[in-house]
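Contributing new complexes? Match this layout with adenosine-5'-diphosphate.
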Amino acid sequence: MHQKVTKIGVLTSGGDSPGMNACVRAVVRTAIHHGLEAYGIIRGYAGMIEDDIQDMNSRSVANIIQRGGTILKTARCPEFLLPEGRKKAYDNLKKRGINGLVIVGGDGSFHGAQIFSNEFDIPCIGIPGTIDKDIAGTDFTIGFDTAVNTAVRAIDKIRDTADAHDRLFIIEVMGRDAGYIALHSGIATGAEHILIPERKTDMQALIRSLKEKEKRQKLVNLVVVAEGDDFGGGNEVAKTIKEQLPNADIRVAILGHIQRGGSPTCLDRLIASRMGYHAVECLVEGRHNVMVGIVNNKMHYTPLDNAVKAKQKISDEWMKIVKILAS
Ligand code: ADP
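Output block (do not edit by hand):
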């Protein structure tokens, strides 16, 4: 049985995502509402190991709900993979009496939290903060909506210039293991083809389809590629198409890190606030080692173990819709 939580540490870990600040604000203010102390741990697990930990109050999280990035900074911390690193981190928490943690991050961060919590008596609550939306047990992850809207705005602009010149554009969006940004932004911008890691790319079928479109003078085509597609990124896809469609006027646009930054959308601020609030409620109620998610608009708690292992599935229906609407 864990002791009653009185001091909560909050950290952002792994890849940053817009809306993390709104979440930190919610955690700190809900903790204060319950009469708990709140601490901000800087640069994720690195700050835990290096004792870079700050007292937080309501004012420390003022004027951040609209800001992208994370005021707590984030980092990848190889030292936390080692038992000695985690022991150091634990000693620093113990010294301050921090007896509950909220970790905003992706599945790697949850894996670390699970191991840490098994070794030491500190309850950990995970909040999914990742633009990739690749975590099971939640319909939303903080940052996805902002990232996908950034991609949509960029692709709309590319469509204007593609249309002016009758060009074929290959647009690479983020998503090393997950194709959600590509799928959603591709559908929302009317892309002709969407290539994602979850589906094997049939390049010959894609080229056949482009040739057929060339014949009927449909020259403006957008191909949205997730960076982690099995065929390769935007440049590889463009090179292969050019070899087989030498007349096509092809350009590549790699959207890159703009997808991580910027002011979070209303949806990301809402889910960040809701999840942050419920993470503290979880600690107060004595829950431990779960990820707070939202499924069918209700709070949903997944053991950190499962949030680590499972990925969301992309439904075949979406792929069918892409094909029908892109004709
Ligand atoms: P994300 O949380 O965005 O998936 P990472 O996979 O980089 O990002 O994980 C963030 C951090 O979580 C790592 O730098 C490391 O400190 C910690 N972590 C990840 N996996 C483990 C693990 N197996 N054991 C301990 N710590 C881990």
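Reviewers usually confirm one structural detail per submission. For this one: The pocket of adenosine-5'-diphosphate is lined by residues 13-15, 45, 76-77, 80-81, 105-109, 111-112, 115, 130 (CB under 6 Å).
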